[in-house]
Amino acid sequence: MSHSPLAGCPDAVRAYLTLASGADRAAAVVCFADGAHVTDDGHDYRGTGEIGRWLDRVAGEYTYTTTPLSAHTGAGRTVVTCRVEGTFPGSPVDLDFRFGLDDAGRISRLKIGVHDVRAGLRVAVKPPGRREGSCSASTPGYSP
Fold first, then answer.
1. What does pTM read for this prediction?
2. Which of 2, 37, 113, 122 is 20 to 30 A from 44 (CA-CA)?
3. Which domain holds residue 101?
4. What CATH number did the domain enclosing 69 receive?
5. Does the bond joining 92 to the residue before it have cis omega, within 30 degrees of 0?
6. Cβ burial, residue 86 (10 Å; 0-12/13-18/19+)
7. In this structure, are residues 73 and 10 in contact, taking their beta carbons and an 8 Å threshold?
């Protein structure tokens, strides 16, 4: 039996990565806080309206699959590295999806960028009483 890299990640992260490349992108938008901010391919998208249009645009321009390779959660952040393959220039590519969540567990920040294998990992320390996913590391230098 295989173990999904997303198993210990927050619900909103798992839902977004499952829904964003599917036919029901409107359901993926529900994973975001109203004032969420997404950075992808050098462009910023703010609020659920812009984020929904961004998801629709990407789905309309390209056909692609996203395969999670690893995930690390700690200190209110989650970094998921995925292999993205499809009909876009540079395919396939490994991308880091860097999530920040609000107090309600919705995505408040998402930065998508090329995976940096040299970045390394450091163990995250959880604040007392704060429940995090079961992943145990975070990428240094990331701030949601």
1. 0.79
2. 122
3. 11-138
4. 3.10.450.50
5. yes
6. middle
7. yes
How do residues 36-68 score in pLDDT, each as one tens digit? 999 998 999 999 999 999 999 988 888 888 999
Taking 3-state DSSP, the helix, strand and coil percentages for the chain, each rounded to the nearest 5, stand at 20, 40, 40
**Inter-residue contact 5 to 70 (CB < 8 Å):** yes
φ/ψ (deg, to 5) at 54: -65, -45
Q: State the total domains in the chain.
A: 1
> Is 88 within the bounds of a domain?
yes
Q: What is the dihedral of CA 64, 26, 106, 20, to 10 degrees?
A: -10
Q: Is residue 144 part of a domain?
A: no
Residue 60 lies in a domain: yes
